[in-house]
Amino acid sequence: MKVTLARIADIHEDRALEVDFFGRSILLVKAGDRINAFANTCTHAAGPLLFEDGRFRCEWHGATFNARSGQREDGPGPYPLIRLPTRVEGDDLVYVYGE
Ligand code: FES
């Protein structure tokens, strides 16, 4: 299964691009040499995430997560952010599953 998420040119380091993925919010961000696709859901109590100062911050209780690894840096989120498997195909970032 493959689903195009966004054009690479629209994904940046200084802001997250929010895209719809079957009704769920996904955040795309460049982090160094990689592009990450994270579910817009905090792992504490499912709060929404903001991208600021190079990391994700939960709007509800303030947990912060590393934009490169998805690991929690501070606050109550017990697990890393949920990362979608992706790869670059041509000019696009594509979600891939089962390939
Ligand atoms: S829901 Fe994100 S820190 Fe609580």
Question: Descriptors for this entry?
Answer:
mainly beta; Rieske Iron-sulfur Protein; 99 residues; 3-stranded antiparallel sheet
What does this structure look like?
The protein is built from no helices and ten strands. It has 99 residues and is an all-beta fold. The strands form three sheets. A four-stranded antiparallel sheet has the order 5-6-7-8, with no helix packed on it. Strands 1-10-9 form a three-stranded antiparallel sheet, with no helix packed on it. A hairpin with a 5-residue loop joins strand 7 and strand 8. The termini are close together. FE2/S2 (inorganic) cluster binds next to loops.
What is this structure's SSE topology?
Blueprint: E1 2-7, E2 17-21, E3 24-31, E4 34-39, E5 49-52, E6 55-58, E7 64-66, E8 72-74, E9 86-89, E10 92-96
Antiparallel strand pairs: 1-10, 2-3, 3-4, 5-6, 6-7, 7-8, 9-10
The structure holds FE2/S2 (inorganic) cluster.
FE2/S2 (inorganic) cluster is lined by residues 42, 44-45, 47, 58, 60-63, 75-77.
